[in-house]
From TrEMBL, chain A:
PANTHER family documented for this protein: IMMEDIATE EARLY RESPONSE 3-INTERACTING PROTEIN 1
GO cellular component terms given for this protein: COPII-coated ER to Golgi transport vesicle; endoplasmic reticulum membrane; Golgi membrane
Protein name per Swiss-Prot or TrEMBL: Immediate early response 3-interacting protein 1
Signal peptide per UniProt: 1-20
Family to which this protein belongs: Belongs to the YOS1 family.
Keyword field: Membrane, Protein transport, Signal, Transmembrane, Transmembrane helix, Transport
Role this protein plays: Regulator of endoplasmic reticulum secretion that acts as a key determinant of brain size. Required for secretion of extracellular matrix proteins. Required for correct brain development by depositing sufficient extracellular matrix proteins for tissue integrity and the proliferation of neural progenitors. Acts as a regulator of the unfolded protein response (UPR).
Main localization category: membrane
From TrEMBL, chain B:
Name of the protein in its database record: Protein YIF1
BP GO annotations: endoplasmic reticulum to Golgi vesicle-mediated transport; protein transport
Bilayer topology term: Multi-pass membrane protein
Organism: Denticeps clupeoides
UniProt keyword annotations, A-Z: Endoplasmic reticulum, Golgi apparatus, Membrane, Protein transport, Transmembrane, Transmembrane helix, Transport
Main location (coarse class): endoplasmic reticulum
PANTHER family per UniProt: PROTEIN YIF1B, YIP1 INTERACTING FACTOR HOMOLOG YIF1 PROTEIN
Pfam families named in the record: YIF1
Chain ranges passing through the membrane: 144-163, 175-197, 209-229, 235-255, 276-295
Name of the gene this protein is made from: YIF1B
Function: Has a role in transport between endoplasmic reticulum and Golgi.
Amino acid sequence: MAFTLYALIQTAILLTNAVAVLHEERFLSKIGWGADQGIGGFGDEPGIKAQLLNLIRSVRTVMRVPLIAVNSVCIVLLLLFG
Amino acid sequence: NLNIHNIQFRRSMLNNRMRNPSADISGPSPLFEDTSTGSPPGGHRGQDKGPVNYPGQSLLSDPMSNLAMAYGSSLATQGKEMMDKNLDRFIPISKLKYYFAVDTLYVGKKLGLLVFPYMHQNWEVSYQQDTPVAPRFDINAPDLYIPVMGFITYVLVAGLALGTQNRFTPEILGMQASSALVWLIIEVLATLLSLYLVTVNTDLTTIDLVAFSGYKYVGMIMGVLSGLLFGRTGYYLSLLWCCLSIFVFMIRTLRLKILSEAAAEGVLVRGAKNQLRMYLTMAIAAAQPVFMYWLTFHLVR
């Protein structure tokens, strides 16, 4: 149960990678979580599902490029230091 | 003769300059005055063997090195300002100062409120022209002093508890600290995520959430200390008491911030939105006792 900050960083990287590999048209649209299916009406409250889809889409858009860099750094560090 | 006059003149100028340091000197006030009397011949940088003045002042009386000193100190001030400005972009230092504006009376009352929140009537945070009042003046305002001190005390008390069981090594202090910090970060991130998903319009900042999550360290410390003094029964009893108190405290504090005004009055407004927010408040409040138990049970045998 002893967590270090390094474990937290690893968890964060793994979770962000997991969100980034969800494919838009092969997977998300099939289960009704596509980017165009979340925007409901223009009511006042977006609702949880719309917020979640929005979050997934924005994480994938924003974190694509930084994840490439972070993953490369991680790979190099793991190769060097095990 | 000329030498003595020079020295006395210099000394009086030095005292004068040191008495009003807000003169045109930028940065730390240099301990020299700029004078053009008795400068060594030529514009060379002063060595130790100045001809007219006593050694030590010859370097400083040279106008070239004067200029260099003034330029260097102005550069240092500029660098310091730039660093402050950049640091302020990442860590909002001015906002952090608000959370540490506490005094002894506030800390005492707040600690009392954390263990006995049942009699307190008014949980509203008072505002002063759209900015919240400093914690010194309002007991309901969140602060960061108690969480930070509580965290440090928790790590020390954990070391003490493990020491009484002969399980202490210096490394575990660091491990306890980083474990507790990691759980705190996870809890704050989970709360932020759930607040985002429920689209609640609140003025809770991230630092507020850190402060609220840090209040449980007080209960944890009390539990572990009574576990050390009175054994497992004492630990369970005081932990139960502190868990209930923190639960009530969190619900009463968060209700005003998360739920809309109608529901905060106590009127049960039926509606999916308010129900969801109530569930969210209860979930956040219920996570506190869970964490309190999870982070302390291995310390008391």
